[in-house]
Amino acid sequence: MKKVRTGTFALNAPFGLWSALFIIAPLIMVGYFAFTNADGQFCTESMQEIFTHRNHAGQLMYVQLFGRSMWYGAVATAISLVLAFPLAHFMAQTKASAQRMLMILIMVPMWMNFLIATDAWRFILDSLPWLRIADTPAAAILGMVYFFVPFMILPIYTVMNRMNVSLLEAAQDLGAGRLEVLRRVIVPLSMPGVVSGIIMVFVPSVSIFFVNDRLGNVMLIGDVIERLVFDQIHLGAALSLVLMVMVLVCMLVLNRFSSRERGAFVT
Q1: What mean pLDDT do residues 65-79 have?
Q2: Model pTM?
Q3: Among the four residues 70, 71, 191, 206, which has the most C-beta atoms within 10 Å?
């Protein structure tokens, strides 16, 4: 038993070290800068500024940026889900060789450099002026969907590919049509993958920077944080902390919703 525990500890040690250095330590640093001033003294001025600072129009600037970022992230996530679900379902129904080919086609854009891909999309939009979406929110959302839709496809496809085919056959034997099977069997069983995909797309979409500015000329909270880190690190850390809490709340809500859906299917 002692040897087993020692072996388990040795296997988990690299992951624990990685988490401590690149997850826990950065979070502690963000919390420290968010609640201190330039002298290192505890204060809440940065947090107060987030909810009190107003722009020239008298609007709460940072609150408005948070709302805009959440909205754009939600729209990009919804579009990604609409595109990913039928494609993942199609992939799960094809042969193994076709699945591998489709998987490669999905993964290829992820191998491209982030900045180069963004500039390529900018060139495409500028070359098609009749679309009239360059420097608009639609272009920013298009960039989000392009970069993050693979993260929606993969978890949904993984769940669907492992789905018990006998459940689908049983539903068809009981007289359920294709739409009924999709609504009452496939969708509920796919919810773990859907929730994972939503989280994997929504989180980076909310905090993304450069893409929305380059394609849509839109300022989101990620762009503000990226700029403040070099000029006003305490305010940037406070914005990062608030954004992290908001995203965490959204994830908890999604997990609760997923649990209810699985419970409803079981009952």
Answers
A1: 96
A2: 0.88
A3: 206
